Amino acid sequence: MQPDDVLAMAAEVLAGIAPEADLSALAEDEDMREALDLDSMDFLNFVTGLQQRSGVEIPDADAPRLVTLRGLKAYFAR
Fold it and tell me: Which regions of the chain does DSSP assign to beta strands (E)?
C-alpha cells in the first residue's frame, strides 16, 4: 500500500471516530493518541477500522506500531 493510500485510509477511519481530527497537522513521529486526544477505546476503534478497510489482520501486539504516521505507513508498506 502506498503512503498516500495509508494516510487516506487512516483519515477516513478517523473521520468516523473523531471528525475534527486533522492528520495533516501531525508530525511524522507525533503520537496521534495524544495529539488528537484519542482515548483507548477511540484508538481500539481506529485499529479495528484499519483492519476492516485494509483487510490486513492487526494483532493486538502490533497496535503500538500504529500510533504515529511514520508507523502507520511502515506497517502497511510491508
Answer: none
Beta carbons within 10 angstroms of residue 44's beta carbon: 14
Query: CB count, 10 Å around CB of 9?
Result: 17
39 grid coordinates: 482515548
Q: What's the DSSP call for residue 38?
A: -
pTM of this structure:
0.93
Sorted by where each begins, the domain ranges of the chain are 3-20+27-77
The span from the CA of 78 to the CA of 21, in Å, is 26
Reported as a single tens digit per residue, the pLDDT across 29-67 is 999 999 999 999 999 999 999 999 999 999 999 999 999
- Please give the CATH superfamily to which domain 3-20+27-77 belongs: ACP-like (1.10.1200.10)
